[in-house]
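Hi R.,

Here's the chain you asked about this morning:
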Amino acid sequence: MPPEIAKKLAELGRVVDPPATAQLYAPLQPKEPYFGFRVERDLKYGPAERNLLDVFMPQAITSGRPVLIFVHGGAFIGGSKRRPNSPFYDNVMLWAVKNGFIGVNIDYRLAPEFRWPAGAEDVAAAIRWVSEQIGERGGDPSRIYLMGHSAGAFHVANYVSHPEFFKVKGGGLKGAIMISATYNLAIGTVGEPERTYYGDDASRYASQSSLAGLLKTDIPLMAVSSELDLPVFVGQLDLFKDAMCKRPGGCARTVMLPQHSHMSEMYSINTEDTRLTDQILDFVKAGK
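And here is the predicted structure, written out as tokens:
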């Protein structure tokens, strides 16, 4: 991490500040048009208005590449796979293609109009679309990795932990990566964003949470938080780590990123700061 960025992130502190963080990282990211890449935008994967995805591929025709599906955050009520005049989250897709993947970036239905379990249902629909369609775009449908950030990570965790949402046998995944998520809604702070999506009935939080199901899944898992992340996500990473290490299958991969904040952990992808992406590549290579 460049020292000047580390200093500014430390000054911002434990906040979720997309505009200020974007100002630090946007100059480090490439701008369109992206040379050496093929991009298909806004493909429909389901009937809802926001059931759209982008596919990033290398310019040269390939086959058999693993697939990385990314699910953005936005406090359950906002966010987008791509904003005008912004390099985010194309940056995740560009990194994926440069490192041997086919990249898939999805939007999904938002609260308050669409509440639990709409996010997990949309993730399931996207995985089914990828399983059926990605082969003709150079991807291997038997090697799909699912990654989410913030609210997107909640949706990833909810999908993996609730097999009733699966539309593909076994869930269709080789691995799942959750960056800044809550795994047990019954422990810790449930804020306004969570209530907007999950509702106010605390008696349902246990069944809506992901931890119990994550303890049972055979899908390899990786969980991430950062030094300057919100305390709730740091605490939930510790909770996840401790619980996973007590299961018969042993510990899952957990990563605490030094220096980073809630937004910089994603905006830094596809820069020279490879601390998170090195872990992702090792997770894929090792299978755990």
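One quick note: The longest strand covers residues 139-149.

Cheers,
M.
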